[in-house]
Amino acid sequence: MALESARYDFGVVGAGIVGLAVAREVLDRHPHSSVAVFEKEAVVGLHQSGHNSGVIHTGIYYQPGSLRADLCRDGAARMKAYCSAHRIPCLELGKIIVATRSDEVDQLRPLLARGRANRIQGLELLTSQDIRRLEPHLNGLEAIWSPRTAVTDFRLVTSALSDDVRLAGGRVVTRFAVRAITRGSDGVEIRAADGRRARVRRLVTCAGLQADRVAVMSGGSRHPAVIPFRGAYWLLRPELRGTVRHLVYPVPDPTLPFLGVHFTPQVSGDVSIGPNAVLALAREGYRRRNVNFRDVASSLSYPGMRALAATHWRSGLREFGRDMFRRLLLKDLQRYLPGLTVADLVPGPSGVRAQAVDRDGGLVDDFVIDAHRDGRVLDVRNAPSPAATASLAIAATIADALEAS
């Protein structure tokens, strides 16, 4: 059957980790249905799914009872089991959330209480002596120890999910850049930039950095909008890989959506440092010089972005400074590892985060999954970290919603 006249029971826009997990879940529940995933790139998982820290989070930071908290906890267990079943490297290294100042010490106990409210196993407070036993080179007054935090390679997970979809009889259609979504009497038609068309009975959009634009195509609201933030990573030079053996995180700033620069041992053996968070000049721009004028105009013209900048301009300047000047970044890192030097930092990869912002400048903190009234279309509007961790649980939630509508 030619793609131009193809018909499917279920369609998914976006072959990132969430979109592929959704397709896999639907096929698992409805093995005789026809399912297709439509991806604008030539390969799966090219953007957020392939540009992240690789952390399987436990969910200590998230508001108890929120989707992020519940799906992160469920998703972490599912993800570890999935990695084990598919022989994907997964290391449960544990995480240390370190307070280096007295004002940060005061924030540890409320954070610990939040983590326990989220039913995270094994959390405990560490003294400075405890910190040194775990990480001899690490400076800290007190810390929270989260032993179940793990790392994997989400690129391998995404590739395995794609294989699962195909083996179950689904299709992964690449180079299909969706430009229009139209409801009809017998389903939903999606049209690609090159004129190809496909019709589906039910559609789920998981478009990541393009989530708001695809949601508008499907008939959804223009709010919240995606504001892209680029995050650069550094690597410890290879000779220092053993200097950091666990994940090391700062105490988070409760007014910001980003966790701050942290140290993450990878399954590859590298130790990544980052990411920072600066306004990206292109939604898919991984280098400073990448500029997309449509994306810039979209960000700057959005009233929520202007309100956000008015509130957080100081932290924005700090992030910009650390992005441009390695010594400013080093000064922050030396709070944790005093012996670090500029020569110890090697340039690493970058990622771009799709941060949903409402029209008043509020940072959308939770996952947002919108089902349209007619039940034919469901949009994943906001799926920030820990979406990779939670992807299998998010997929189960979306499949439940499809069955209920």
Give descriptors for this structure.
405 residues; alpha+beta; FAD/NAD(P)-binding domain; D-Amino Acid Oxidase, Chain A, domain 2; 3 domains; eight-stranded mixed beta sheet; five-stranded antiparallel beta sheet; 10 helices; 20 strands
Give me a quick take on this structure.
With 405 residues, the protein is of the alpha+beta class.
Describe this structure in words.
The protein has 3 domains: 3-49 and 155-224 and 366-404, 3-Layer(bba) Sandwich (FAD/NAD(P)-binding domain); 95-147, no CATH class; 227-361, D-Amino Acid Oxidase, Chain A, domain 2. 33% of the residues lie in helices and 26% in strands. It has 10 helices and 20 strands. Strand 11 and strand 12 (197-205) form a beta hairpin. The protein is globular and about 65 Å long. The mean pLDDT is 94.
Layout of secondary structure:
Layout: E1 6-13, H1 17-29, E2 35-38, E3 55-56, H2 67-85, E4 90-91, E5 95-99, H3 102-117, E6 124-127, H4 128-134, E7 142-146, E8 150-152, H5 154-167, E9 171-173, E10 178-184, E11 187-192, E12 197-205, H6 211-217, E13 225-236, E14 247-250, E15 262-265, E16 271-274, E17 278-279, H7 293-301, H8 303-324, H9 326-333, E18 345-357, E19 368-371, E20 377-382, H10 387-404
Helix pairs in contact: 1-5, 1-10, 2-10, 8-9
